[in-house]
Specification:
This protein has about 425 residues and is mostly helical. It has two domains: about 60 residues, no CATH class; about 350 residues, Na+/H+ antiporter like fold (Up-down Bundle). It is built from 17 helices and no strands.
């Protein structure tokens, strides 16, 4: 199939499954699309018993998509920029301490906790996993996924302060997770980085990405002030989102943090300009559409990935235990961080239950799992990660509305 045919097939599937999700099954479009794609993928696997070559064709199609490159070096920059650009800066500023603790200290604690948990779980299931494999899994599954979290927040009426905590954490902890993943990758090659080296990597990559994002956003904002053409302003923001991400990757600084910083800085800088100088409402509508369309496509791709996941009884059991483990560790870390914040901010309002259940994992974790070297347990890591992601998106993301009954979620109109 040609590239155009593959893209057309994916978009058509996203459109059809989205229609059935909204019209027939009354499910959130993204969750419904992923579930329907998952069912379709399983049907293709079963159909191969009667139609030889069907499963082989489908697997070849998925492998040609190169999910990890498509996410890490394609869609992620746009999705992070859109999420940051549309974020409420007022509430994010109020929650900076909580966001900082969750995205840095919380991610570090969760990574260590999941590594220890998986080492114990796999040994219990009869495996003998090296510690480096367990730390690979801990590093890729601990950061909450900004794509899944922001999609959930867009359709569920979460109180704005809690929304800022969840969204801010998911946008900023990718930089920490990426540094940890690279550190484990170095250790797998026989080069064990010291804590000082890891800290220096985190500082250089994070600060480099943040500074670059802010600088490019300032330049873009100044250009936008000097033109009265909506289409040019859209092109400038697209250039910032895509070009800035690509430049950060080229210079080996944190591209995810560059995209986040660029989105936040551009929003803040544009707020100081008169509405006639910049088409604020039109830009918001454009980036909301970009965000929603990409989410729908991404969730279809997640459903297709089941065709290439090496499932077995062992990985099914490890996946179930990992889903339980990451939930317990998430609750523990969130409770600890909330306790620390309340030492400095008396009466700080939050919800441990919402922060725990709303910390979703998604396509970014799967993309990182696909990047794990085959010699370092990629098989079990990929299958286990996929099960955790399915549980996170379908079960956690699909039942977050139930938290309203406990008074932690409010309707959008009451914000």
């Amino acid at each position: 199939m040609t590239t155009l045919a593959i893209v057309s097939l994916i978009i058509t599937a996203a459109a059809c499954f989205g229609w059935f999700s909204a019209r027939v099954f009354r499910l959130p479009v993204t969750i419904g699309s992923m579930v329907l794609t998952f069912i379709t993928s399983m049907a293709l696997m079963l159909a191969s018993h009667w139609i030889p070559g069907m499963h082989t064709w489908a697997v070849a199609l998925v492998e040609r998509l190169r999910f990890e490159d498509l996410i890490l070096h394609g869609m992620l920059g746009l999705l992070l920029f859109a999420g940051a650009f549309l974020l409420d800066l007022k509430y994010l500023a109020q929650e900076k301490l909580m966001v900082g603790l969750l995205s840095v200290i919380g991610t570090l604690l969760s990574t260590a906790g999941m590594a220890v948990t998986m080492h114990w779980v796999l040994a219990l299931l009869g495996g003998n996993p090296p510690w480096v494999e367990c730390f690979f899994f801990g590093a890729l599954i601990s950061p909450t996924d900004p794509i899944a979290v922001l999609e959930m927040l867009h359709r569920v009426g979460v109180a704005k302060n809690i929304q800022a905590q969840l969204a801010g954490e998911s946008l900023f902890n990718d930089g920490v997770g990426a540094v940890l993943f690279l550190a484990v990758l170095s250790a797998s090659h026989g080069v064990a980085p010291s804590l000082g080296h890891i800290g220096l990597m985190l500082l250089v990559q994070s600060c480099g990405g943040l500074v670059m994002g802010v600088g490019l956003a300032w330049f873009c904002s100044e250009l936008m002030r000097r033109v009265e053409a909506f289409e040019v302003e859209v092109l400038l923001t697209l250039a910032l989102a895509l070009g800035g991400y690509a430049l950060a990757e080229t210079l080996h600084v944190s591209a995810p943090l560059e995209a986040v910083a660029a989105g936040l800085a551009l929003r803040r800088l544009n707020m100081t300009h008169h509405h006639t100088e910049i088409s604020h409402a039109s830009l918001d509508r454009f980036w909301k559409v970009i965000d929603e369309v990409q989410n729908s496509i991404l969730f279809v791709l997640l459903g297709l990935e089941v065709l290439v996941i090496p499932f077995s009884r062992f990985t099914m059991e490890s996946g179930a235990m990992a889903a339980l483990g990451i939930t317990v560790i998430r609750a523990t870390v969130v409770a600890l961080m909330v306790g620390v914040v309340r030492l400095f901010q008396r009466g700080h309002e939050t919800s441990i239950l919402t922060l725990t259940w709303g910390g979703l994992r998604g396509g970014l974790s799967i993309a990182l799992a696909l990047s794990v070297p085959a010699a370092n347990g990629r098989g079990w890591i990929l299958a286990t990660t996929y099960i955790v992601v399915i549980f996170s998106i379908v079960v956690q993301g699909g039942t977050i509305d139930l938290i309203k009954r406990f008074g932690y979620v409010v309707k959008r109109g009451a914000r």
